[in-house]
Design a protein that fits this description.
It is a single chain. The protein is built from five helices and twelve strands. It is of the alpha/beta class and 203 residues long. The protein has a single domain, classed as Rossmann fold, CATH 3.40.50. The strands form three sheets. The protein has a seven-stranded mixed β-sheet with strand order 2-1-3-4-12-11-10. The longest helix has 13 residues. The structure holds glutamine. The site of glutamine has 11 residues, from helix 4. Belongs to the glutaminase PdxT/SNO family.
């Protein structure tokens, strides 16, 4: 059985837990480094990235997660989670110098669409996704403003606008909140990433 950890320091935790559980994964809420032991993949939820980084710093959680990420652990970051996975954040001082997780060769711009009142939903076309457009919920969302050569763009707003979903190897990140919709396709995509990263089981 696939065990997925959801970083549960702050933000939209329960919605991710519910969606992953509905997909048949075992889910563990993770607040301390030792709770990462044995997880096959990790979700970094949306919320407020500085608040999350501050809470994580108290227990060294993101240092441990970064080490496991570098060793190949699949991670799915949504909104603030995308910011925490970014190697570079514009106005990086806004994260107050706390450790983040990194790994994605991108520069993120926080609150790039505006503040809370500029939250919106847009039906997005996602690369490789069959069926109807994905109902993407943006809340004080970041944009990917620069990306390295190994980063695959999965979605842009307005078709050819700002980049809002990316994949790089074992890392998946969206500026929007798929856990706040009824559409499980991105979580299913992540679960498939996790499964394909697990060693084959001898039978
Ligand atoms: N604006 C938030 C940040 O900078 C992210 C918002 C969200 O996760 N919905 O961390």
């Amino acid at each position: 059985m696939t065990l997925i950890g959801v970083i549960a320091l702050q933000g939209a935790v329960s919605e991710h837990v519910a969606m992953l559980t509905a997909l048949g994964a075992s889910v563990r809420e993770v607040r301390t480094p030792d709770q990462l032991e044995g997880v096959d993949g990790v979700v970094l939820p949306g919320g407020e990235s500085t608040a999350m980084a501050r809470a994580a710093a108290k227990v060294g959680l993101f240092e441990e997660l970064a080490a496991r990420r570098a060793a190949g652990l699949p991670i799915f970051g949504t909104c603030a989670g995308l910011i925490l996975l970014s190697e570079r954040v514009e106005d990086g001082a806004a994260l107050d110098g706390f450790a983040t997780v990194g790994g994605l060769d991108i520069t993120a711009r926080r609150n790039a669409f505006g503040g809370q009142l500029a939250s919106f939903t847009e039906d997005l076309s996602v690369a490789g996704m069959d069926g109807p457009a994905f109902p993407a919920v943006f809340i004080r969302a970041p944009q990917v403003v620069e990306l390295g050569p190994d980063v695959e763009v999965l979605a842009r707003t307005g078709g050819d606008g700002p980049v809002v979903a990316v994949r790089q190897g074992n890392l998946l990140a969206t500026s929007f909140h798929p856990e706040l919709t009824a559409d499980v396709r991105l979580h299913r995509y992540f679960r498939a990433m996790v499964r394909s990263s697990q060693p084959p089981v001898d039978v």
